[in-house]
Specification:
The chain has 534 residues and is of the alpha+beta class. Helices cover 21% and strands 29% of the residues. The chain is built from twelve helices and 27 strands. Strands 3-2-6-5-4-8 form a six-stranded mixed sheet. Strands 9-10-13-12-11-14 form a six-stranded antiparallel beta barrel. α5 packs antiparallel against α6 (173-192).
Length: 534
Amino acid sequence: MSKSIEAGIDGLPGDEQADRRVHGGPDMAIYAYACSHYDRWIAEFPEHAGLWGSGALGENLAMHGWEETDVCIGDIVRVGGAILQVTRPRKPCFKLALRFDDLRLPRRLVETGRCGWYYRVLEPGAIAEGDEAVLLERLHPEWCIRRVNDLSIQPDADPTELRKLAALPELAGNWRAQVQAAALAGEAAARKTAFREFIVVKTIDESATIRSFELAPADGGGIPAAQPGQHLVISAQADGRKMSRPYSISAIANGHLQISVKRETGGFSEWLHTRVKAGDRLNVLGPRGSFQLESTSGLPLVLISAGVGITPMMAMLQAATTNNGARIVPKGVSFIHCARDSSHHAFRAQLADIRARHPSVSFHTRFSRPGAEDRIGVTHDSVGRIDRDLIHRTIALLGACNVYICGPIAFMANVSRWIGEIEQSGIRVMTEAFVPSGAAASADRKRRPDHARVSFARSARSLEMNGSGSLLDLAESEGLPVVSDCRSGTCGACAARVISGEVGYDFEPVAPVKDGEALLCCGFPLSEKLVLDL
């Protein structure tokens, strides 16, 4: 500036901003930039050497001797006759790229921390070129502009740190809104990858082998948002060792979620059946999974299950027959289920109640091995296993519809193939499985070591693995964040890079595995030491 200019509450006279919705205003009245940065820009982008220099980035004040590490949120500074206060860093928009015709520059401005900072005007006054900038008061020495800038570009920024930043009263209002949104997103992500303690409200025997567990948050807070079809990961200290397993949500109610578990000899499910009672506490992760009821189209709905595969279907059926204003009731619902006999037919009372209240729902129950007391037309509709003829008769006349299938992998593969034979567009098929029934056993099982040390490099954790379970079970039991969905080697979501060591499989995964990676849901360490990039 060759002559003095009056700095007012809204900035400097003649200062033009292209878009007042995101630029300008009292919190961004004056933009300051460090003169020392221009030599660095010239060295990095010599092709723009003719454009670099004071004012090139649109600053109102080009400052000597001040950089982002020297300037803090809330700093009160006298420049000439004006009193200014630091409010936020700059986060450039696309116009910077247009100015230099270079799409790299906006990103580099924030990546390098050479972003500059904004002032609000506390006391208007005249500013002239050569005026000294004097720091009058430093309110938050721990929050320099460089730290605020760097925090804003961290994808996994600590929500606690973001909350501390947002609490600074001197922070610009628009930056506070961004920080609060990032904190909320981070907290939501943390909840998805952190176990929470739930109380077992009660247990219900649904069949000879399936028991339901109603779970309510032990902290008294609300239940997490869950979609019909999703699952929870349950973790507990079972028989002296920490174990975790996924179980489908069979009911979503006010104040509690319900899982339904089939008892298998040995392992976690038997422990749940024999040891867990009302009042006990379990660690719960989730809800998780993309196997979710579509609730916006109103298309006919077909639910097909076998055995314990009925559990997620119950949550879907309950949702599909309840108009709560948040979902569209399907035009029709067909519910097909196969069980061994009436003693193994879970949820009989609930299904009878829905049948009585909703005549539009079509039910077909097939028993593979009916008992002496079972009667067609009373306990079940037909004998055998679900087959091609039943699937074709149910779906062929529906036209476009949503079909959900849950059960053993071989069962789901067959049903999906039969549906694919129907020459009808608009049929959407979703499948879900946790237990790899029918999956081919891997020769790696015979070489599985009794003990192995598994290190998760990014999480700086090293854990002992003793002869059973998967790498996904191990990670989740310690609360390590892992993206996963099918848990049966079919989707590939849980792939992780192997830094050192060797991984084997309990069964051959369906999803392709890239060189140097492993699927955690069905993988285990073949070597005594294994390091994963997680």
